[in-house]
Structure formats: structure tokens, C-alpha cells
Amino acid sequence: MPIYAYRCRSCNHEKEILQKVADVRLTRCPTCGKDTFFKQITAAGFQLKGTGWYVTDFRDSGASKSAQKKKEAESSEAKTSTYGDAGGKVASADKTAASPAPAAKSS
Fold first, then answer.
1. Residue 14 burial (CB < 10 Å; 0-12/13-18/19+)?
2. For each successive 10 residues of the chain (107 residues), what is the average pLDDT?
3. d(CA 18, CA 14)
4. Where do the domains of the chain lie?
5. How much is the pTM?
6. HSE of 38 in the Cβ direction (CA atoms, 13 Å)?
7. Rounded to 10 degrees, what is the CA torsion of 62, 67, 69, 75?
């Protein structure tokens, strides 16, 4: 349901009212009682009701995206410092210990 902003021309009382689109416009001011209450033109406002709607559903996710990128960068730096700069592989100083012994030639 949309939220409409109303204002009284005589006493300048302002109020936001939750109404159906098909509801009749209000004309009587709740403060002074005169018929000078009118609907203002404002940006669209609405209220989500019922189950299945969460406050976080329509929030700006820019902050969470930057936090995710920062987390990925920190994770990448941690891997580089753990495994060295050789593309994720640790370079062995003693190559003979890492490779198998050659097979003996038979004569």
C-alpha cells in the first residue's frame, strides 16, 4: 500500500497516511478540522507487509561487495605468504631429494 503525504492549507499540519490506491482522498484536517487538507505530490513510498520480507532485502549491497573484495584480497595475500611466490607451489632447494633415483642400467 502506498504512503501519501497530506498537508493542511490553513494550519500547515503535515501527515503521512497509509492508504490504498482506490481509497478516497482525505479533505478534513485532523488538527484544525477544516476542509483544507490536500494530498501532496511526493516521491513514491510503500511499505512491505507479510511474511517473507526482510529489512535487508533491498538495502544497498555496495558495502557488502567491498567487504567481500577485501576479504578475497586478504585471503590471496595469505596464500602467497604461505606458499611463496612460485604460483602457489613451494620451490624445493634440494631437487635430488624431491625426485626419484634413476634406475640402474642393466648390462
1. exposed
2. 90 92 92 93 74 68 63 65 51 52 62
3. 14
4. 3-39
5. 0.42
6. 7
7. -170
